[in-house]
Amino acid sequence: MTLARKVEMVKTTEGLRLRSIPQGIDRYKTSRREIGKNFRLGTDCFGLLLEGKGKARLCNESGEEIIVEIADNEIILDRSSAGIERLQ
Fold first, then answer.
1. Which strands sit side by side in the sheet containing 54-59, from one edge to the other?
2. Using the 8-state DSSP alphabet, how is residue 43 labeled?
3. pTM over 0.70
4. What is the largest CA-CA distance in the chain?
């Protein structure tokens, strides 16, 4: 599953970058709740509010994971271990 996105090229001081902005998610926004390490999600649908700099690791029992990293002026999603790499 993936989200609909608006994709555009943006000029930065480091050159052109691809910006992806999720669309149609406003109705899913809710109040925030702090979670601790090893918190188990009880649903297939959730959202994250990350503040400050650092990394968050989202994983499942199959060993698939996504790393979300917050840096100075960017958000980095490492999906290299997120599951199926190609459709067969």
1. 54-59, 65-70, 75-81
2. S
3. no
4. 41
